[in-house]
Write a structure and sequence with these properties.
The protein is built from seven helices and 15 strands. The chain is α/β, with parallel strands linked by helices. The strands form three sheets. Strands 1, 2, 3, 4, 5, 9 and 15 form a seven-stranded mixed beta sheet that branches.
């Protein structure tokens, strides 16, 4: 999917900021005009059996320009959250080994809003190609961006509030109470039933009322599809999340469902 123009070479890179969201299966990126602070270009490409994500990154001309600045959020890579009072830099590999073995490049972000550190692993081939095309890029984990911006936008809600980020093979569930993070985790899913099961499990364990507490939807979910319909059968107060009203878009980009690209567009708000 590409929106905003067919010839990216006609843009002036030095006047733009490049935002990238990258998972092992898809790369999405957008350009922000730094003069008027308006997003004007978007593209998303999924990996296939014959075209890996590394090949896609290497072949995308829009990623190779020398922009005024650039940022990337790594999504759905192995990660874990550690409170800063318990975190030790020299132990970061051991923390992450509880999540997944055979780790490659290990990165860390401090999430100041919750006084914690997120540790995550990215493939070295991905790290190398990103450093080649954008050597000065600012890196973050997408969970860092999500938590940061959710607290900013929804932290004034007094009741426990759940947020679900739906992707092809997994979901991320985050729960806030009065602006404080009380839960975050990833779950591997293969069906709408899996999504419902893990969501209801979290509601039960955290004492959320399926008739009262709100569930905000992000990612690959649309009103009327199977994922939405099944969730709505059991959780009555569901809504689609929104990106910050402080962000601005060209007319072409307003056609995008903004709840699908919440972390991509929130990167610049969580520096």
């Amino acid at each position: 999917m590409e929106i905003g123009g067919n010839n990216i070479s006609s843009f002036s890179p030095e006047e733009n900021h490049l935002s990238i969201e990258l998972s092992s299966e898809r790369i999405s990126y957008s350009l922000l005009n730094t003069n008027n602070l308006k997003y004007f270009y978007f593209k998303s490409v999924s990996a296939t059996e014959n075209n890996s994500i590394v090949n896609i990154i290497s072949s995308e001309e829009g990623l190779k320009q020398e922009y005024s600045s650039s940022s990337i959020s790594y999504k759905d890579f192995p990660s874990t959250l550690i409170p800063n009072e318990l975190y030790k830099e020299e132990e970061k590999s051991k923390y992450l080994e509880f999540v997944k073995g055979n780790l490659e490049s290990i990165k860390t972000d401090v999430i100041h809003q919750i006084d914690s550190t997120i540790i995550y692993s990215v493939g070295k081939d991905i790290e190398n190609v990103i450093n080649q095309i954008q050597p000065k890029i600012s890196e973050k984990n997408s969970t860092n961006v999500s938590i940061c911006q959710l607290i900013k936008q929804y932290g004034n809600i007094k009741e426990k509030t759940a947020f679900i980020f739906v992707d092809k093979n997994n979901i991320e569930l985050i729960v806030l109470e009065k602006g404080i993070l009380i839960f975050q985790n990833y779950f591997t899913v293969s069906s709408s039933t899996d999504i419902l099961y893990y969501t209801l499990f979290c509601f039960d364990q955290l004492n959320l009322d399926t008739h009262k507490n709100e569930l905000f939807l992000f990612g690959e979910i649309s009103k009327g599809d199977e994922n939405y319909s099944l969730l709505y059968d059991y959780i009555r107060n569901i809504k689609f999340g929104e990106i910050s009203s402080s962000l601005s878009f060209t007319k072409e980009l307003t056609m995008l469902s903004k709840h699908k690209y919440f972390t991509l567009y929130s990167q610049l708000l969580c520096v």
